[in-house]
Amino acid sequence: MLNGTEDEEKWLAEGIAGIQHYAFFMHRALDSNNLREALKYSAQMLSELRTSKLPPHKYYELYMRAFDELKRLELFFKDESKHGVSVVDLYELVQHAGNILPRLYLLCTVGSIYIKSKEAPAKEVLKDLVEMCRGVQHPIRGLFLRSYLAQISRDKLPDIGSEYEGDADTVIDAVEFVLQNFNEMNKLWVRMQHQGPGGVKEKREKERSELQDLVGKNLHVLSQIEGVDLEMYKETVLPRVLEQVVNCKDDLAQYYLMDCIIQVFPDEYHLQTLETLLSACPQLQPTVDVKTVLSQLMDRLSNYAASSADVLPEFLQVEAFSKLSNAIGKVIEAQVDMPAVGAITLYVSLLTFTLRVHPDRLDYVDLVLGACVKKLSNIPELEDRRAMKQVVALLSAPLEKYNDIVTALTLSNYPRVMDHLDIGTNKVMAMVIIQSIMKNYSCISTADKVEVLFELIKGLIKDIDDADVDELDEEDFKEEQNSVARLIHTLYNDEPEEMLKIICIVRKHTMAGGPKRLPFTVSSLVFSALRLVRQLQGLEGDIVGEDVPVTPKKIFQLLTQMIDSLSAVPSPELALRLYLQCAEAANGCDLEHVAYEYFTQAFVLYEEEIADSKAQVTAIHLIIGTLQRMNVFGVENRDTLTHKATGYSARLLKKVDQCRAVYACSHLFWVDDQDGIKDGERVLLCLKRALRIANAAQQMANVARGSGGPVTLFVEILNKYLYFFEKGNGQITSSAIEGLIELINTETHCDSTSPDSISDAFLASTLRYIQFQKQKGSVAGEKFESIKL
């Protein structure tokens, strides 16, 4: 038992064999100019097309074999000298063929020659042919027959400029012929859906899809008729075609034909007949994919608008946006079962159309977003990922068009659309917004816009609906928070009062972000506030009431509250760094008590919160470095802080760390650019103390490991001696330097000292520096001359 495919192949082979068999005898008759025999065998050959066993793609193969033979037969019919019968008589003669299908194929072939002979008006022959083709009502056979009629007649239509043009109304006749053929073909095509058993619906739809181009070609022919101007298209062609589309009530046909109309007719025709075309959409079957049809229409119109600025007034004249918006509303209302993704896709297409055609009309953009909000409000929870993706596309479109988030912030419905996103997608969209700001260097410079912006990106700066921040991927979380931090740096306004408002709004939002986010956002916020402080540098004033102009004091109070919030994390190392930054800013504003308070807070953190030895080393060096740059302190406050710093330096865990911190403290007593802070004696005390600690470290290493450590610390201290010697510290003498060099040499050659190439290189480099200074001459050279190497 052969399966279906093998059966079809067998039937096709039999059909082709039959055509070849009768074609052979037909060729022999043509060669001998025997018209009677030629008609007989051609009719028998065409009878092979009467089969009902083949699917469309197989039937097409059979049809093409017959079509090739008909072309040869047509050449014979054209040459009256060969058969001696006039075309009028031939037209009558072929109608005597026994079976209707061969008869009509022969009639169409001779009809083509009849029109070409101009012995009868083209419109009369075409009308006759299209009417007689109704005799074949089998869908596949009828479609191919009418396709043959359309093929042989397309260059013989009585069109304007055609050699077959007759009186003034001939274009109408050409249009009527094509429309009638189209209507009949569509009816045959739709009828296929209702033939055969119900269980093979998918197979029938597949077969129909294979035949759709036969029907669509009629619309293409209509679009090519020169005489079909806008007026005729508007009054005759489009209404008649839409009538057939709507009345056929077949979803496959309606979708395909609407797509054909949009694709084959000119854009300017669509624009001028927009209302008529759109009015058909709500009348289509509920299962028709109207969203794709409308999307394609809007895409074509958008491209048309982009092609030339001259056509834009036409869009305003016909109120294209209003008509499209109303049509989409009606379609969504009519198709109650339309999934969310379909409705949102329509709004995305409408928004794309609006942004391309009316980029200056932000009210139109906001209307589209508002319509989408209305649709989303009727959905309890948007769970469809495809729909969510379309919402992101909807929100991204204005950003991509305007390259400016500031424009999007003026759209009242923009944040309302974002509220309908789930947590994950909300974050994705927030990242898109931030990336847009960074890419386009957008400046958000007013407090109101910053408020709207931070409402939009709230998914990144605080937990929504009690979402667990611990469930987030660590890398993703860091990337998100770093993006927020970068965003904060971009917010700026030249007006101090407005800038302070911006800082307060950002603080309000970021402080609600929870302890895990604060280390990322507080730092950016603090530096943003410090930028404002430096802008106001030198201003003073007590804070009385809310309307007092912005002062550094007011900002420093805000800064203290921000940094204090890090205690909830806790993040003492970061807080200490920020306190020191604030102290330096207070120094620039000449606010001694404020700077002192920040140093106090830094020391409290160092004492109570920072326990790790490495963190302590980093912290004490930061404190020493910052304190060294301060010039705002009086003698008492500076002494207090300096004493604290040196005390903590000497109490570090490792001797090596103690030594380096203590000699670093020497810089606290000698600052070049400040008068009065040049205490050479205390500098020397620090260096001697560092030297004692280095010596102790060497001895401890010797006891613990049986050999001393490298002499690097001694060389580092030597460099400090040389620095202060060069700066003119009278307490640092050449003899002290010589003694230290001798000590280093002794330690280096000691058996218990571990050899170290780095230390040796460091020492050699230092000694070369001394030699270099000696050779320079001048005052510096004379000074170094006293050092004997």
From TrEMBL:
Domain of life: Eukaryota
Keyword Transferase: no
Membrane topology: Peripheral membrane protein
Pfam families registered for this protein in UniProt: Vps35
Subcellular location as annotated: Membrane
InterPro entries the UniProt entry points to: Vps35, Vps35_C
Key words, A-Z: Membrane, Protein transport, Transport
Protein's job: Plays a role in vesicular protein sorting.
Annotated PANTHER family: VACUOLAR PROTEIN SORTING-ASSOCIATED PROTEIN 35B, VACUOLAR SORTING PROTEIN 35
UniProt record similarity statement: Belongs to the VPS35 family.
Protein name from the UniProt record: Vacuolar protein sorting-associated protein 35
